[in-house]
Design brief:
alpha/beta; eight-stranded parallel beta sheet
Length: about 350
């Protein structure tokens, strides 16, 4: 937790790789890349909305981001149906992952599908946080037909983006073109709430090796200067170097916390020292004692946005806990994530009743 307290203070021993040395200097506080919003602008942006709450969303028919966005498997009907369930309980925000390979395969079609998705979400009065890069789960994404789910295993097919540690100039060039094209195309789109530039940088034991890409994506995004704010969510408190760059270059502070509400509240209170609006972009893991019933009311009292992992039980299998597979695929005694079953009925009616009450429905 000490790392959180030090995010806005001196950071020593920074070990960024050469590609980031123009921005991050060893032994000094990381430079804020020009273009960060003043805190006053960030608060004015946040205050125009009702309390932001919702879920990380992928349709139940997609195992990963590529299956969601590739032309052959883009499922507008399921997206429409499931975001309708979200609207009905008062959710007004979803967080959605993109993927660079889906863009590489078909840049024009990819952006058309993004626009189709946004039209559906907007119909349901739902704003979207789009995520660019991701260091979680499987490190070897491939274009084309995606794998079938492994029975009873959490996120067996989720795809990192880009997966490998980026060191080659040609890879940086490709990723820059992707980020720049998407941001430029949607930089003024009111249906988009926020751009989440990099999910959990340093995960899967990458640690500071993710620093060059982190710095680059911030730089590319600031060059486009979208009307929507930028953020990079904090998630692991011992990654001091990454945390500093993430927090000091975010217009709005976003973070992940799957702990019980007492521990979560301590993290939240420390992050408030940044003096910026806050959104928790991942929480709610029932067997970790992070639930709707004990955490969502606390987030609303603290005026922090609340986005839980998972909406509908589907091919991601995230009703199963991390690293605790059930090989026969039987239903876990307690679901880890998700709000709805595949037929739209709530997993737990009391949770849906609370969500509706918190949203005045």
């Amino acid at each position: 937790m000490l790392a959180v307290l030090l995010l806005a203070a001196s950071v020593t021993g920074l070990k960024a790789q050469d590609a980031a040395k123009d921005t991050v200097i060893k032994g000094q506080v990381p430079t804020i890349i020009p273009g960060r919003w003043p805190a006053e602008k960030a608060h004015a942006w946040y205050n125009q909305y009702k309390w932001l709450n919702g879920a990380d969303f992928i349709p139940s028919t997609a195992i990963n981001q590529l299956e969601m966005w590739q032309a052959d498997t883009f499922d507008a009907a399921t997206i429409d149906k499931e975001l309708g369930w979200a609207e009905n309980i008062g959710f007004n925000t979803v967080r959605v992952y993109l993927h660079s390979l889906a863009w590489k395969q078909d840049p024009k079609g990819f952006k058309q599908r993004m626009n189709s998705y946004l039209a559906i979400a907007d119909k349901h009065k739902i704003k979207t946080l789009f995520v660019f890069f991701d260091d979680c789960w499987n490190p070897d994404p491939k274009i084309g037909k995606q794998p079938a789910p492994v029975t009873g295993k959490h996120n067996s097919g989720w795809a990192q983006d880009p997966g490998y540690i980026v060191t080659k100039e040609e890879d940086f060039a490709f990723l820059k073109n992707y980020v720049t094209d998407v941001l430029t195309s949607f930089k003024s789109d009111k249906r988009i709430l926020l751009w989440d530039l990099y999910n959990e940088p340093g995960n899967t034991k990458k640690f500071d090796a993710s620093m060059p890409l982190l710095v680059k994506v911030i730089t590319w995004a600031r060059a486009v200067n979208p009307e929507q704010p930028l953020s990079i969510g904090l998630w692991r408190w011992d990654l001091q170097n990454l945390n500093a760059v993430q927090a000091l270059n975010s217009d709005v502070i976003t973070y992940h916390d799957y702990e019980d509400p007492d521990k979560h509240l301590r993290v939240l209170q420390m992050l408030k020292s940044h003096g910026r609006p806050m959104i928790c972009t991942e929480y709610m893991a029932r067997t970790n004692n992070s639930t709707f019933l004990n955490s969502m009311p606390m987030l609303k009292r603290e005026n922090v946005g609340a986005i839980n992992w998972g909406l509908v039980d589907g091919k991601t299998n995230t009703k199963y806990a991390w690293n605790k597979p059930i090989p026969d695929g039987s239903e876990p005694e307690v679901w880890f994530h998700e709000v709805f079953r595949k037929d739209g009925t709530p997993y737990r009616q009391e949770e849906v009743d609370l969500i509706k009450k918190l949203n005045g429905k």
